[in-house]
What we know:
The complex is a heterodimer. Chain A has one domain (4-94): Orthogonal Bundle (Helix Hairpins). In chain A, 82% of the residues lie in helices and 0% in strands. Chain A has helices spanning 4-24, 28-53, 57-87, 92-95. The longest helix of chain A is centred in the last third of the chain and has 31 residues, at 57-87. Chain B is mostly helical. In chain B, 72% of the residues lie in helices and 3% in strands. In chain B, helix 1 packs antiparallel against helix 4 and helix 3 packs antiparallel against helix 4.
Amino acid sequence: MIGLSHYLIISAILFSIGLVGVLRRRNLLMLFFATEVMLNAVNIAFAAISHYYNDLTGQMFAFFIIAIAASEVAVGLGILIVLYKKHGSLDLDDLASMRG
Amino acid sequence: MESLVYVALFAPFAGSLFASLFGMSERQIFVGIVASALLFISFLASVFLAANLFITGEVIQVTMMDWINAGDFNVSFGFVIDQISVTMMTVVTLVSTVVHIYAIGYMDHDKSFNRFFSYLSAFVFSMMVLVMSDNFLGLFIGWEGVGVCSWLLVGFWYHKPDQSREDNPSISPSWAANEAFIMNRIADLGMLVGIFILYWNTGSLKYDEVFAQLPYLADAVLVGAAIALFIGAMGKSAQFPLHTWLTDAMEGPTPVSALIHAATMVTAGVFLVIRANPLYAMPEVAGVSMFIAILGTFVAFYAASMALVERDLKRIIAYSTLSQLGYMFAAAGLGAYWIALFHLAAHAFFKALLFLGGGNVMHAMHDELDLFKMGDLKKKMRGTWIYMGIASVALAGLPFFAGFWSKDSIIETAFNEHTYILWIVLVITAGMTAFYSFRQVFLTFHGEDRHTPLGFHPHEMYKYVLIAMSPLAVLAFITGYFMDTYKAFIYQFNDSVQYEMSDHTHHLAPYLAALVVGISLSAIAYAYFKYARTGEKAWKRDEKVENGFFYKLLANQYYVPKFYEEFITKPYMMVSEKFWTEVDLKIVDATVDNIAKFFYNAGDKTRAMQTGNLSNYLNWMAVGGVILLVIAAISAMFV
């Protein structure tokens, strides 16, 4: 029987994968994918817990997150394209221009 | 009438503000003229008020405005025109007017001519506040005001460098100004304590209200207040042991010495004692009053003894001022307040005249003040010679001159009170006074011509300056004849200023006066034979005398300044230096510096985080997130 904890474990695993992606990846596009993974990990947790408590609020929240993530990707990709046109690369090590 | 009070008070202030408008600019003669004219207006107003008071006997009391209203504490800017304050007002404005006109001539070549008049008029304003106020706080404001102006004016030539004590006993104008100010601060603390004592116990600062409650106060309160107020008076009037500043204050321009350090400001202490006469006349504070009389007599003698050997023209006059202040305190301490006030007025006239004459000599001799370099100036400076002669006769107390009436009454008072020791000392001092004042006159104006070989070519002062001095010369002569009128005038004030000689003294008075005059005359004769002769018998410096113990003791002012320097100034300096290097630098400054350094270093070290690489930032963000998570988990465990 698949219970709440399975969902949460999946969510945790996905979140960790996303986090490692954010920390280790050098390509901005990959960073975006990683953040999407993290957001969806949270969505899974929301939906599962919502179902567990028989409360639709959590699922509604998940919808909102999906909507916001979509718009974030739209804006973010626009910026990425501009960046790529300007620098010819999306590697973070090449983009470091504000050294303190 | 009320508007006249304000005219008398604020005309000098207007003059000061007017002069200060031109404070930074070139010498402008009209600045001096306007300031003098405003003072003359103030003088006229004062005379008018005095005449009005004399005829009608009505004391005028005006309240300009509320000053402090805090809970039960109410003080207003109030002024009172009574017999005591009007005497002071007239004397102060008269002497100031003469000195202002004099200063137009004396400060002729000075760059800071306008600034000088601004300070001088500000001083007169402060002095007027001091004498006219109807409460102790207003008096204190005036008291501090004259202190500040004195500081500004003594240090007027602040650019002069410091010299060693051997070359110049007062070191430098700025040094002397600081000394005067600091010594006065010490005494002012005493005075402030006295005012607090009176306020705490009577709940008021107004003279009338305070004095009305005196009979209901405890003995200790009365004695404490009397002592504390007298400490303030001792500072301002330069009584022992706070006297050293007065002779050093001679570093200021001579008009300042004449006005502030002879005629007016230094008499503020005497004025305070006279003003507080209901307090000092209480039988409970008889001990304090006796102490005032004894100290006054001591200072009279002490200062006169130092004047005997002094070579500096201005310092001799300064010592004589000290000595005469001692006489005034002696009279006030013995209860003869009106005689003290009368001597104050008479003294103001002839001492200002003497100082201004000294200023003429100094001007003529290009700031040389050593008597031993003068001699036989009478041919070249006839007017000054006559003026200084009149002033010296008045100071010595020879008959028919102002000093005779006023000083002799003080000596008579000492006899009348059966304080024969004080009487003897005062009589001896009168002889010394005659000797040193004529020693000065003879060394300056008579005897061998010692200045021409030294390359001095003295010339007489401007004519208008000499004319401006003439009112003082006239007053130095005639003031004494108004003694009985003045007595009738001041007797209207209250019972405690009234003082009458007993019949016994009255009978002996002519003999006593004759004794004093005889001693003075023989002292003058001795001075004449010693210093005034020319040719074979001319006076010469005597090495043996000058190296004698007493001569050295007197010439070094009984080593009091040296004592202050060795035992107060130097240890204080050492302690200050220690506190500076050990406490201030090592603890206070170090703490502040280290706080600043910590932040600077922290910033410097953590700056390396800012690589500009987004990936690094994200890593740090994750670290922060983890730390927050850990903290949240730990705190959740403990809740």
